[in-house]
Amino acid sequence: MTLQHRYDFLFLFDVKDGNPNGDPDAGNLPRIDAETGCGLVTDVCVKRKVRNFVELTQGGTEKNKIFIREKAILNNLIGEAHQQDQVRASEKGEKTKAAREWMCSNYFDIRTFGAVMSTGENAGQVRGPVQLTFSRSVDPIVVSEHTITRMAVATEGEAEKQKGDNRTMGRKFTVPYGLYIAHGFVSAHLAAQTGFNEEDLELLWESLGNMFEHDRSAARGEMTARGLYVFQHDSKLGNAPAHSLFERIKVSKQCEGPARNFTDYSVSIDDHLWPQGVTLNRKVG
């Protein structure tokens, strides 16, 4: 079923003793706002985890394949669209449109987040109905640096340099604790253009709520979805500005010292003079 409503959502997640999103331009340090000290996680990082969850749970089914995946050669995937009968049979001027529609119908991440598919055989560009902001921590974060030791070397040359001592040193960076907030938006009008439907929307909510459970690593520490608050509008255009809805979710620090657990915060909802035509659904939290 096609979307009949606009959605705005607030996603709350935390990290403990891990690096939620390293910056390759800064030696893989956790991303940080230099002026405020608040931690950042890019929209691309969150989308990657959604893609991974969909690929894991849907098993590459025909309509839920993933376009942006590890080691994929994108131009080859676009070329596959042009090999379909309905595309080959199209007039020259319609081939791009037909290929784009085929890609949207077969790849979850294209019809959800959009894609640029004009790098080879042209399948055009798709503006996705689901958009995410950078995630920002509620409070400034502290970056901890740890020296680690590897009791082995990679080559005989390294072993000779170490003169029998095979230990090599390295570093890893963690955030002791950080609670992050991301804002997201779902456009019913753009969903109609890509074929993103109610079933896809439910898969998106499921992915956001469970993606950290299947993305564990020592580097990322403990990451947990703490809240997913979905504002559903009665209309496709919306019944209230997104920012006014996000501001109703209040996250407050309860401890005097540095926060080290989610229980050090409280989350409340301001329901005073609730806007007409907007319903709040708590998917997580």
Summarize the model shown:
By secondary structure, the protein is of the alpha+beta class.
Salient structural properties:
single chain; 285 residues; alpha+beta; 8-stranded antiparallel β-sheet; 32% strand; Cas7_Csh2/Csh2; CRISPR-assoc_prot_Cas7/Csd2; Type I-C CRISPR-associated protein Cas7/Csd2
**Helix percentage range:** 25-40%
Query: What does the overall shape look like?
Result: flat
Helices and strands: which structural class? Answer: alpha+beta
Strand content: 25-35%
Tally of distinct domains = 1
Mean pLDDT: 93
Order of helices and strands: EEEEHHHHHEEEEEHEHHEHEEE
Tally of alpha and pi helices: 9
How far apart lie the N and C ends?
27 Å
What's the Cα radius of gyration? 22 Å
Characterize the main sheet: 8 strands, antiparallel
Number of strands: 14
Parts with pLDDT < 50 across at least 5 consecutive residues: none
Protein name: Type I-C CRISPR-associated protein Cas7/Csd2
Pfam family, one: Cas_Cas7
Organism: Lacimicrobium alkaliphilum
InterPro entries: Cas7_Csh2/Csh2, CRISPR-assoc_prot_Cas7/Csd2
Tell me what the structure shows.
This protein is of the alpha+beta class. The protein has one domain (7-143, 173-284). It contains 9 helices and 14 strands. Strands 1, 4, 7, 8, 9, 10, 11 and 14 form an 8-stranded antiparallel β-sheet that branches. Strand 5 and strand 6 (125-127) form a beta hairpin. Helix 1 (43-58) crosses helix 8. The protein starts with 6 loop residues before the first strand and ends with a strand. 32% of the residues are buried.
